[in-house]
Amino acid sequence: MCRFLYILLLSFGFWTNSYALAEDWQENGQTAFQAGQFEEAVQQWELALSALLQEKQTLAAIDTALQLNYAYQALGLYQTANDTLHKVLDLAKQSNDAERYALVLNQLGMLYLANREISQASELVTESVNLARPLNNPALLAELLNNLGNVFALQQDYLHALEIYQESALLAERSGDNLLLANVLNNQIQLYIEQKNFNDAQVLFEKALKINASLPDNYDKAFNLITLGQLAQSSNERLLAYQRYTEALTLANKLSNNRISAYAQGYMGELYVQEARYSEAEQLFNQAIFLAQKQSAPDLLYYWQWQKARLLKRQGRTEEAIAIYQQAIETVQPIRAALNSGYRTHSEASRQSVRLMYFELADLLLQKADTTTDEKPHTAYLTHARDTVELLKAAELQDYFQDDCVTNAKTNITESKPLTSRTAILYPIVLPERLVLLVTLPNSLKQTTVDVTEARLGEEVNNFRTNLVTRTNRRFFVQAQQLYDWLIRPIEANLQAANIDTIVVVPDGILRTIPLAPLFDGKQFLIERYALATTPGINLTDPKQINWQKPNVLLNGLSKSVQDFSPLPNVPEEINKLKQVLSTDQVLEDDAFLLGSLSDKLKNTPYSVIHIASHGQFDADPQKTFLLTFDGKLTIDRLEQLMRLSQWRKEPVELLTLSACQTAVGDDRAALGLAGIAIKAGARSALASLWFVDDRATADLMVTFYQQLQSGKMSRAKALQYAQQKLLKQGASQHPAYWAAFLLIGSWL
To answer: Where is the signal peptide (predicted)?
Structure first.
């Protein structure tokens, strides 16, 4: 309450000594930060920054913003750190203080790196180093070079990273900054370990130990001991790791620091698991969990809950393990975005590890279902497994688009089952040693296990995708039959018994990168037997029948070569035919297809169908995902904003069609972006292509698809099936490269 009173008084100018107060807040923040009390440091420094900006104390404000940035990063709040630095970026640039400006640029670069924007990070960090080199400040240059080494390391440019780290270490040693030197040495050790250079890693490890011993007993020293323990553990040096964790725990107790204690005891628990000393490991995990709860540290809490669940699973205590896995998932849900950031924590590895936790729980539930003969608990285990996978699907979309609101419109289809009588939902769950096919039928839920490893499946999928887009050969048939045998043949009897005619696929991982339409049973393609749709998560889908009574349709097309993209000469024919089929004169074509014009159209009319015939690129980085307009690139965020513009819109866009998209072979994150396009853009369904298709074949398919929808006799999935079958029957377009790329995403009705 007092802090809020101080802010209020400051805002009305009642305090004449606000600068003195700011100094107190700065000092309090520094004390809290050094003790590892980052939340308290943030509170104190925010008060100081507000006062300093108000008093126009520019240099002190820049210093405080930099400190706040470090505290927010320690808490995993990278976007807040970024916002804080941008408050003082212009001040730093105008201050004529090159040292502070270099520090601000450097830290902004590291925040770009945490957000996986490596090119921007490299540019800013390099600029900061260039600014610092003439300043004759070895400590500053050492810090900036250490971060430049981190950039090179994440780019896997290990040679340059090592050179930069070595220069940084020399400068840190020359300036007498032992804490910085310890951090640089830790980075070098990690680099050597990643390169399997354990001899050089050991030499530096001994040096780092001596440097760390010279540091005062504080949080930084304790955290360095944890880091050294992890480095030793990753080199399978268990005794060295145990010694470092023990030292860290002793120091943590002296400092009364629960966070370090939780780290130390949890990692010691991992060592005991490796030694098969399970009882002692469980006690240590329990203590780490208790301390993480006491510290309100969910980033630690979920991890130690997860490790305890793994231990219980290893001991065959399945029901207990399931309960703890569930607790870990509930803990991690609100903090996934923060876990996926961080430049030395390898965000991709973090993302994959969190994903692994969901699948370990699903795996355990599926195993339990497999050994349960009573129908009611058997179905309950299968349902729990499916719901766990659904939860992961929503999390993956939120993480890809970096938008927690992207999955707000959940429908709980898996609970209420509003499926048409002839629709099946297929979940291929890819586990390390096997593939599980979970199939929701109108009146039942079935599980089938396929004996194929994740690695073997991935190899076959990548070969299939490569051969599919090569029109000059038919080598794809080999993989098409093998994948059919793994993904469809095991559930054929169930599909036939339920008289299924439409399959909705919820693909996982690498399976997102291929269509199932060209799978081959030896006589027919799958599309000849079933209508197909895909969705990133069934509970993220709103399956309602499309209403084609006088739909509002907006056609957009770009046939000209702009921004170094090739022309699409058949787009005018596609647009002209669709104008006739759909009876619309609402068209933006070529130099009329401008970002501003599209914005005006969508703002004033609640279109139910939006068709875009232009180049589209989906990338693992959503910031590099776009649709091409005549005057620029339409990002997915911008598309979402435009489609939600209409003040008259009560229902979502029924159909968004993107007829010239492409994703890279084997890039399942790019394919995730494509799969999530309908949800992100606020459309009930989307029709898009996995790879660029001959634009004449595209035009023919689109016209047929819309004609069938216009008739009012077919679902969206059936209309696409009809259009693909029509191309398949034509001699010039029989190869799947012409018709298989198109996916119906979202509502299939």
So the answer is: 1-22
Instruction: Report the alpha-carbon distance of residue 258 to residue 37 in Å, rounded.
Output: 10
DSSP 65-101: HHHHHHHHHHTT-HHHHHHHHHHHHHHHHHTT-HHHH
Output the 3-class SS for 363-393: HHHHHHHHCCCCHHHHHHHHHHHHHHHHHHH
Residue 561 phi/psi, 5° resolution?
-80, 115
Instruction: Please choose, from the candidates 704, 688, 707, 705, the residue with its C-alpha nearest in 3D space to the C-alpha of residue 745.
Output: 688
Give dist(CA 359, CA 388) in Å, integer: 8
Q: DSSP assignment of 166-187, as one string?
A: HHHHHHHHHHT-HHHHHHHHHH
Q: Which residue has the higher pLDDT, 545 or 163?
A: 163
CA angle 567, 573, 574 (to 5 degrees): 90
Chain centroid offset of residue 121 CA: 19
Higher pLDDT, 172 or 603: 172
Look at residues 324, 300, 328 and name the one whose alpha carbon lies nearest to residue 312. Answer: 324
| Run of H or E residues at 474 | none
Residue type at 102 in one-letter notation: A
Cα separations in angstroms, 570 against 94, 322, 558, 620, 688 = 53, 55, 10, 29, 17
Kindly state the helix (H) or strand (E) to which residue 472 belongs, with its residue range: none
The C-alpha atoms of residue 559 and residue 557 are separated, in whole angstroms, by 6
pLDDT for the residue 417:
45
**Distance (Å, whole) CA 628 – CA 659:** 12
Q: Smallest Cα–Cα separation from 609: which of 568, 643, 574, 559?
A: 643
Residue 399 has pLDDT above 80, yes or no: no
- Does residue 571 contact residue 559 with C-beta atoms inside 8 Å? yes
Model confidence over 702-727: pLDDT tens digits?
999 999 999 888 999 999 999 999 99
Strands 423-430 and 435-441, by their bridges, are antiparallel
Q: What is the pLDDT of residue 619?
A: 84
Determine the pLDDT at residue 310: 97
Q: Which two tokens stand for residue 726?
A: 């029509």
DSSP string covering 219-236: HHHHHHHHHHHHHHHHTT
587-589 vs 626-629, strand pairing mode = unpaired
Q: Give the whole-angstrom CA distance, residue 114 versus residue 545.
A: 42
Burial-class residue 129 by CB neighbours within 10 Å (0-12, 13-18, 19+): buried
The full length of the chain comes to 749
Residue 525's nearest CA partner among 492, 491, 480 is 480
Strands 626-629 and 685-689: unpaired
Residue 661: CA atoms inside 13 Å, Cβ hemisphere, count? 29
CA distance 347 to 115: 9
Q: Which two tokens stand for residue 305?
A: 């809950």
Average pLDDT, the chain: 89
Tens of pLDDT along 343-382?
Answer: 544 334 444 578 889 999 999 999 999 999 899 999 999 9
Q: Among residues of the chain, what percentage have pLDDT more than 90?
A: 71
Residue of 232, 198, 352, 226 whose CA lies nearest to 300: 226
Determine contact, residues 600/556, Cβ cutoff 8 Å. Answer: no
Residue 280 near residue 272 (C-beta atoms within 8 A): yes
pLDDT of the residue at 648: 55
- Structure tokens belonging to residue 241: 């790791």
d(CA 49, CA 57): 9
Residue 547 CB contacts under 8 Å (≥ 6 apart), including other chains: 608, 654
Closest CA to 505 of 483, 533, 541, 531: 533
Q: How far apart are CA 229 and CA 251, in angstroms?
A: 14
Structure tokens at 707: 């004609």
pLDDT of 500: 97
